[in-house]
Amino acid sequence: MRYRSTRGGVRDLxxxxxxxxxxxxxxxxxxxxxxxxxxxxxxxxxxxxxxxFEIFKLFIDDIPLDDLKELVQKSYSAxxxxxxxxxxxxxxxxxxxxxxGPTFAFKDVALQFxxxxxxxxxxxRNTYINVLGATSGDTGSAAIYGLKGKENVNIFIxxxxxxxxxxxxxxxxxxxxxxxxxxAIKGTFDDCQAIVKAIFNDLDxxxxxxxxxxxxxxxARVLAQIxxxxxxxxxxxxxxxxxxxxxxxxxxxxxxxxxxRMGLPIKRLILATNSNDILYRFVNFGDYSKGEVVKTIxxxxxxxxxxxxxxxxxxxxxxxxSAVKDLMDKFLETGVLKFSSDVLERVKDDFESYRSSEDxxxxxxxSFYEETGYVIDPHTACGVxxxxxxxxxxxxxxxxxxxxxxxxxxxxxxxRYPETPQAIKDLERKEKRFTVLDNxxxxxxNFIEKVLTx
Length: 454
Ligand SMILES: *Cc1c(COP(=O)(O)O)cnc(C)c1O
What we know:
By secondary structure, the protein is an alpha/beta fold. The protein contains 20 helices and 15 strands.
């Protein structure tokens, strides 16, 4: 399989090259040149790891199969159940539990694999990388757990000092591995992001210290997420297949779209948003226009610009790279894209979308708990709300985080705290390690320099 950019400026990459490039050098996103068809009957009986291996094989042909198999084994042994992503049925909806990884959120599914892949590829090429990123909580901890202890990799993660949740802070800062550097910035998440962006824009510095990213646009992350759509389908017995996906950057739901194009008989994907509704407006009205980010109890969906959306545009416009480039240039300039009714018709063949207000989200947590005794987190609740609004039977709802990550929101909704898994309790006794720095690009650069040169 070869890879190319959605904007046409990069082509004929191998999987490994695509993985290491991350964002395409022409500013686009990397996509496979063809979408392979999956043989459903051959995949049906496989356990999670074998299924992942078979699906990865369709997209990766430059890693020896024995090595790939080992990478998959290693990555998914880090989950607390052999099933990796179990499916449970509650009150007429299926819940696809994606939170059995080390940080209790679905990003582990991709980042555990990514961490092992980084180590493998970098060792193979006899090189190293220093990953730099900013987090408001979830991505940072999943990235740290993916990369901690890996050879040929260091990871520097900036978070806003005192402004991430207690569980997230514990998860990030109690890691003991020497290659993990937590930097608490005296500022906001936006300040952290601005610092990271400024450092990446200093190309000399970036080159000198071999800086890289693990953000959600890496093709390998999308690839890892395709697997559980197949896995869930094989473990349910539904007449018409709908998935409801709590959506932020469009990464998770795009993986579902890929699964559909590979032949999984998905009728439609239900795109669930919170009040940050740019994607809801796109699917319903053809209006993709940037607004202000509002803070909600489902913070991992608090985005306005969906970084993976460009991949869908590429397919919506029949792989026409110049059309994608024009659209993205226009969006960068104006912050607005409007789509015609015939384009919108095609969007609606693949997606439907519902938006959950804060009140809807809390009420959904409450009613679901009262009816089933099962506690869902606020992100999952947006998806369950959307599934109810859709009126389809037997929707498979992606549960993207464990409720214990958001105890305050759960308490507000149902009047009691969710049970804390032992692994989170264990963190409370550990020492936190982080460095507090001013909101200053120079200070962060000095810190990185000092760490890497002494
Ligand atoms: C990241 C995240 C999402 C959103 O996923 P995208 O791939 O950005 O659409 C939803 N729920 C949780 C808990 C997350 O961490």
